[in-house]
Automatic annotation (TrEMBL):
Pfam families: Maf. Belongs to the Maf family. InterPro entries: ITPase-like_fam, Maf-like. It comes from Litorimonas taeanensis. This is Nucleoside triphosphate pyrophosphatase. The active site is at D84. HAMAP family: Maf.
Amino acid sequence: MSITNHVISTNARIILASGSSIRADILRGAGLNYEVISKPVDEAAIKAAMLSEGSRLRDIADALAEAKALRVSRQESGFVIGADQIMVMDGQLFDKPPTIDAARQRLKEMRGKTHKLMGAVVVCENGVAIWRHLAVTKLTVRDFSDEFLETYINLEGEALTKSVGAYRFEGPGAQLFSHVEGDFFSILGLPLLPLLEYFRTRGVIPS
Ligand SMILES: Nc1nc2c(ncn2[C@H]2C[C@H](O)[C@@H](COP(=O)(O)OP(=O)(O)OP(=O)(O)O)O2)c(=O)[nH]1
C-alpha cells in the first residue's frame, strides 16, 4: 500500500495494540497519529476455550480483539485499538498459515470456493472496552491455474504467512478473486470506516 504521512490532527492519544504491519499501514494511510504498543495475549488458549464452549466464531474474533486491547489499556492511557480476524470456510476456522507451503495448500483448498473473513475491532480506554465493531466479508476465489498459484507464491513469499487468508488483497492477490462482498479495509484486517466514525463522535479526529 502506498502510504502518505499526511497526519490529520488527532486530539487524543491513540494506541494500536497490534503487531500487524497492515493495520499500522491502514491507520497511517488514513492520516491518524498513533503509537503501536503490542503485548502478548494467549490467543490459542482463548480460541480453544471458546471453541470447546461452542462459542460463535464471530464472538471469538471479538473476544480476541478485546483481549489484545485490554492487555495494553490496563497500563496505558488513551484510546487503545485491538483487532482480530479469523477466516471461516466450510464451517471451519483457519489461522494464519505457518509456512509458505502451508499457504500453498491453503490457497489450493480455497480455489473455487467462497470463504468469510470475520474482522473484529475493539477500542478500550482505562482498561474498559468502550466500543466494538464486527465486519464480515465474503470472498469468492476463482479457479486459478497451478501456474498462476506458483507465480503468485513466488511473488509474495513469506508475506503469505502474515495473512489469515494466505493472500494480500491489496496487491496481486486481487487476481485470486472473482467476487468479494464487503469493505476493502475490513478484508485487509481493520474495519477502518466505522472506527473513524467512532473517533469523530468522540472528537478525536475532526468531523
Ligand atoms: N496485507 C494483508 N494482510 C491481511 C489481509 N487479510 C488478512 N490480513 C492480515 C491482517 C492481520 O495481520 C492478519 C490476521 O491475523 P490476526 O488478526 O491474528 O492479527 P496478527 O496476528 O497479524 O496481529 P495482532 O494479533 O493484532 O498482533 O491477517 C490482506 O488482504 N492483506
